[in-house]
Amino acid sequence: MKYFYIVAGLIIYMCIGSVYAWSLFRKPLEQLLNISSTQSGLPYTLLLLLFSFTMPFGGQILQKFGIIKTIMPGALMLSTGLILSGFLKSITAISILYGVVGGIGVGLIYGVPVAVVAKWFPEKKGTYMGITLAGFGLSPFVTAHLSKRLLDLYGPFDTFKILGVIYFLVITIFSLILKMPQKEEISTGNNTQQHLRELTSKEMLKTKEFYGLWLCFTIGSTIGLTMISITSPFAQEVVKVKSSQAAFFVGIFSVFNGLGRPLFGFLVDKIRSFLTIIILFLIIIISSILGFFIKEDAVLLFFIVFALFYLILGGWLSTAPASTSWFFGTKNYASNYGIVFTAYGVGAFLGNMISGSLKDILGSYYYIFYPTLFLGFLGILISILTLRNVKTSTL
Questions:
Q1: Is this structure's pTM higher than 0.70?
Q2: CA-CA distance, 270 to 139, in Å (whole number)?
């Protein structure tokens, strides 16, 4: 029965993970509203920013009021933001409704399924949390094709309305399946490890490991979210593929985003956080170097580079929660990870500013690989200085 909680969580994440298909909306909105690349990325950026900064409050609400009273307000806000964005046809309105209101809704929902799974599977939390979170990364594999079809038939504004209704119904139904285990229901296998530290959020904020993990997660999020937000326009403008082909790539890349979560969650369980984080940054460096060679019609190289970037974002979104648990304990996990997750919002803001500015100033997304390469090396330096000698019984 407890494996149904993974399935329910995965489906909920597939709904709220539709944000990763935002790049499909950018060109239609730019054409209809006569806005710049930076402006078309603003709703996406605001949603991720509000999403991440709502997470700590979502964790506190979950601890005090339970699953349904946390998820249902979130589902209502997300759907309301989408539906009203379909009626108020301006980038300002969409940024407020989809970005701010929808972002708060996603922030309330996001921490619940993974907190449930972490409680049910304490012995292999990295692996099972990663499997559950794969729904968030795999979402565009479904929603990209659905969104593209709806965009072709109805345009962006009616598509907002339709998706808002669908997501509310699905999230509501599957949230009713989730529940926290009683003590006697918790599995404690032979591999269960005990933590030397069970830190409160206040205690966590006094450790160098928190700031190291937060900075590394910020860098990983900045890079991953940047590449996701520019996938479709990069494919069309640099590689010169058709919009339908770009949508196809967005869907395929989401598989790598999804696979990155159980893969790197498994690695955290096996080789622990520090080495996993080093591997993530090495992949960023390799992908950035390869990116410099992408030219018109270089479809295979484009595929390899962007697949790797999607993989590392998925990797960060299982490595960060699993590392939070290993470094700071499980007792206050929901609120602790909520604070760590603010790095994701900062990464979204920085990523949109970097990519939008490069495009608007230099005229091409091609130059994005210069900052990603620099950030990859910076991440390795930070992780060596702050995370290499973390003292827990599991390292």
A1: yes
A2: 27
Residue 99 DSSP symbol: I
The two three-digit tokens of residue 376, written as one number: 């990859």
- Domain limits, the chain: 3-181+196-386
Q: Which amino acid is at 86?
A: G
> How far apart (Å, rounded) are the C-alpha atoms in residues 43 and 25?
10
Q: How many residues does the chain have?
A: 395
182 φ/ψ sector (left φ>0, alpha ψ -120 to 50, else beta): beta
Angle 233-238-239 from CA coordinates, rounded to 5°: 100
What is the CATH architecture assignment of 3-181+196-386? Up-down Bundle (1.20)
Query: How far apart are the C-alpha atoms of 340 and 342, rounded to whole Å?
Result: 5
| Residues 311-360 pLDDT 10s | 999 899 889 988 998 888 877 777 888 899 889 888 878 877 777 777 77
The helix or strand, by DSSP H or E, that contains position 351, with its residue range, turns out to be helix 342-362
Question: Which two structure tokens, joined as six digits, stand for 218?
Answer: 């910020």
